[in-house]
Sequence to fold (182 residues):
Amino acid sequence: SLQQALVPHVETLLRRQHELQQALLDHQAHLHREGSLRAEAAAQVQLAHQQAMHEDQMLALADLRLQRLRDEPKADARAWEFKCFSQWGEDGLIQFLLHRIPDLPRTFVEIGVEDYREANTRFLLMHDNWRGLIVDSGDRHLRYLEARGLRWRHQIEAVQSFVTPANVETLLDQAGFAEGLG
Fold:
């Protein structure tokens, strides 16, 4: 039943939430010991942990939905549409396509990602463990990847560059993404 299927995912979410809350408490205690705790810094740490917990919950719920959809062979693309990190439901639509086109290279490139909080490829990175390249003319995506620990937990390259038809192939080649994109 659906309830039985949900139990391990809910337990995982609760365990992850507890770990993040403990990490927050440990970090705050460390800052107190160092004598450098300021209200603003504590609020930023707490917000980052809350965002991480929210993202973990979104990933778990999306995974449950995907498990159900994979068992429904007649489900059309509209049934698969959902948003985890994308803007308009592309996360689910990409999963719909991947479910029907097996054996694609597990690599992606996304150009114009702003800070990468909301992106079409982030679900592929975090849920499916794809390898990726993200490019933006600003540097907010670089800072966000570092702040969220996405660079060390996942295989993602980030480049700061203004992309043009004249330089796009060079950017892809330099980053090792010239061939074999999924």
Remarks:
- DSSP finds eight helices and three strands in the chain.
- Residues 27 and 33 are 10 Å apart (CA to CA).
- Residues 2-34 form the longest helix (33 residues).
- Strands lie at 107-111, 131-136, 156-160.
